[in-house]
Amino acid sequence: MTVYGYARVSTSGQELDIQLAQLQAAGCERILCEKQSGLKDDRRELARLLRRLHKGDTVILPALDRLTRGGPFKMLSILADITSRGASYRSLAEPWADTTTELGEVLAALVGYIARKTRDDIVRRTTAGRERARQNGVRFGRKPKLTAAERKAALDLCTAGQTQKAVANAFQVSSSTISRICSSDGNDEAKNPTHRAARLSE
Q1: What CA dihedral angle connects 96, 98, 99 and 104, to 10 degrees?
Q2: Is residue 62 part of a domain?
Q3: What is the pLDDT of residues 17-33, one digit of tens each?
Q4: Which CATH number characterizes residue 25's domain?
Q5: Catalytic residues, which ones?
């Protein structure tokens, strides 16, 4: 069973001295540290720490925000990764975050439940809001590069023999955009002979 420490600062201009002193005083046998933003997921030393963990090991942190700045759900994910390997964790700045004690396990589980419940509520409200907006005619996604009239004009030019590249240059869009317009509108006409006949009679 090994007691690990993990320290992190965000920029190369910051120093790790205080965190290292705290972890050494807490009895850490091995300390992994890095200078990297807590918003990034590709942190080499954190990944190395997680790979090393075995059942019975303990991870000590100067504070929970050393694990991540990506919000409570990302933090809970990392903590869950630690416990899933049979290891415990302890934060020096947050006494309740200490799964080496029975009370700490209960408090950590309660905080985790509250965070998951909050996340589920946010997802549910967001989904309901999107559905109401959709029913009211709101369209989601990127705004079309060309209006309906411009799409029709572009399709007419292609039908008249203009190259897709020339049409794309005329409307200041990519050739792939014109290609998609010709492809989708062409398929629509093939599926709707009445619409195609109306266009031919124009």
Answers
A1: -30
A2: yes
A3: 999 999 999 999 999 99
A4: 3.40.50.1390
A5: 10
